[in-house]
UniProtKB/TrEMBL annotation:
Belongs to the acyl-CoA dehydrogenase family. Residues 8-119 form the Acyl-CoA dehydrogenase/oxidase N-terminal domain. It holds the Pfam family Acyl-CoA_dh_N. It comes from Inquilinus ginsengisoli. The lineage of its organism: Bacteria, Pseudomonadati, Pseudomonadota, Alphaproteobacteria, Rhodospirillales. PROSITE patterns: ACYL_COA_DH_2. Keywords: FAD, Flavoprotein, Oxidoreductase. InterPro entries: Acyl-CoA_dehydrogenase, Acyl-CoA_DH_CS, Acyl-CoA_Oxase/DH_mid-dom, Acyl-CoA_Oxase/DH_mid-dom_sf, AcylCo_DH-like_C, AcylCo_DH/oxidase_C, AcylCoA_DH/ox_N, AcylCoA_DH/ox_N_sf. This is Medium-chain specific acyl-CoA dehydrogenase, mitochondrial. CDD domains: ACAD.
Length: 392
């Protein structure tokens, strides 16, 4: 493998970097001080610009108007959006390639293409109070009733539900030949029987909330089931693989910005007449951060390249977990050191290190906690061996 990004990835990197620096980063402090909100016309402008850049289409097939970018190019994009705090880079939805395999032509027309055009906004409801790491334990049920399903259950942490018009919900089929198996459904919002139980406050300051949703006898047309009964878990795994790599990339982007900011501050702040950057204890924090970022980024690029060259899906699953584990843990350490280098300023919410020190924490939790990534990696080592997991 080569460790130089191809020209196409570099082009994307430059384009998205310009968007992020000129349009998104200038609104971070305003968002932080206003519960995550920025003026609606600015949010709308960000969405329009993101759609014009093609960000809703990067993973979609060309046959459907997508850009079908290599995963390595997508990782280069995610690294740049990862530089932004307050989720301001979540400007538009994103159609993922698995959706085109899973959805019927009618669903693609009604849900996925509007998502790509910015006319629909999705959220996803998988986790429950008693089922997060072990998704198989979900208690939400979908019972067939004529040409409908009836969905009952409670879903937690449903990110962006306050801004969405469509929820993808995972439920267990109740009754029939596929009893107990998983399936995914599109549910249009609002829906009769679907309510928000409450909207808890979280550590970060985002306009995207994570409410608890209650499904009480929500009737969903059978035509809105995604794929067949029993296929739900397979789709979720495809989703996890890509999303874990994108989280790794975003963590690398965040760490890069933090190292740049901390280095600039250390060079400019004089203590006892000397720039802080001359102090070797400060240099050690910068050096450790840079070395760890370099390693995590290479692993992330390598996993993306393995994805693009069609590595066996089971080995790939472990490689994506390795990238997420390394990059998310690395970014947490880098953010903590950056706060330390900034001193008291690093504890102020107007400071990027303060915001990232809170925001990056969730990357060790969502899309599979660090412990779950370790279990996947160890499982692959025990089944496929060392060479079968990371190559000879
Ligand atoms: C901000 C935020 C946004 C989210 N957005 C969404 C969303 O949009 N949609 C959605 O469906 N979900 C969402 N989630 C849920 C997220 O994916 C889960 O929180 C995550 O998968 C962990 O599940 P859990 O919270 O139930 O923790 P648990 O599964 O209860 O785990 C608790 C602890 O036990 C550990 N643990 C669990 N099993 C094992 C094991 N076998 N061995 C060792 N340790 C173990 C975990 O690592 C963790 O440390 C979101 C969560 C957050 C915080």
């Amino acid at each position: 493998m080569s460790f130089t990004l191809p020209d196409s990835a570099r082009d994307w990197q430059d384009r998205i970097r310009r968007f992020v620096e000129a349009e998104l980063i200038p609104w971070e402090v305003e968002a932080e001080m206003n519960g995550g909100e920025i003026p609606p016309d600015i949010a709308a402008r960000h969405e329009r610009m993101a759609l014009d850049l093609g960000l809703s289409r990067i993973d979609a097939p060309r046959a459907h108007g997508g850009l079908a970018l290599p995963i390595l190019d997508q990782v280069a994009i995610a690294e740049q959006t990862g530089r932004v705090t307050n989720a301001l880079a979540w400007c538009c939805g994103e159609a993922q390639s698995w959706m085109f395999e899973a959805c019927s032509p009618d669903q693609i027309d009604r849900f996925i293409l509007p998502l790509m055009r910015g006319e629909r906004h999705f959220c996803t409801a998988v986790t429950e109070a008693g089922a997060g790491s072990d998704v198989d334990d979900i208690a939400t049920t979908a019972r067939r009733d004529g040409d409908h399903y009836v969905i009952d259950g409670e879903k937690w942490h449903v990110t962006s539900a306050n801004l969405a018009d469509t929820v993808i919900v995972q439920a267990k089929i109740q009754g029939g030949a596929a009893d107990g198996s998983h399936a995914l459904f599109f549910v249009g919002l609002p829906a009769a029987g679907l309510s928000t139980l409450r909207t808890p406050a979280y550590t970060h300051t985002y306009r995207h909330h994570h409410p608890i949703l209650r499904f009480d006898g929500v009737r969903v047309p059978a035509a809105d089931r995604i794929g067949a009964e029993g296929q739900g878990m397979g789709f979720i795994h495809a989703w996890f693989r890509r999303e874990r790599l994108m989280i790794a990339a975003r963590c690398c982007g965040a760490a890069e910005r933090l190292i740049e900011a901390a280095t600039e501050f250390a060079a400019g702040r004089a203590i006892g007449g000397e720039p802080m950057a001359r102090f070797q204890l400060v240099q050690a924090m910068l050096a450790d951060s840079l070395a760890e970022l370099h390693a995590a980024r290479l692993v992330t690029y390598e996993a993306a390249e393995a994805h693009d060259r069609g590595l066996d899906v089971k080995a790939l699953h472990a490689r994506c977990s390795i990238a997420k584990l390394l990059a998310s843990e690395m970014a947490g350490r880098v953010a903590d050191r950056a706060v330390q280098i900034f001193g008291g300023r690093g504890y102020m919410r107007e400071n990027v290190a303060e915001r990232f020190s809170r925001e990056l924490r969730v990357d060790r939790i969502w899309e599979g906690t660090s412990e779950i990534q370790r279990l996947i990696i160890a499982g692959s080592l025990l089944k496929r061996g060392l060479a079968g997991t990371i190559g000879p």
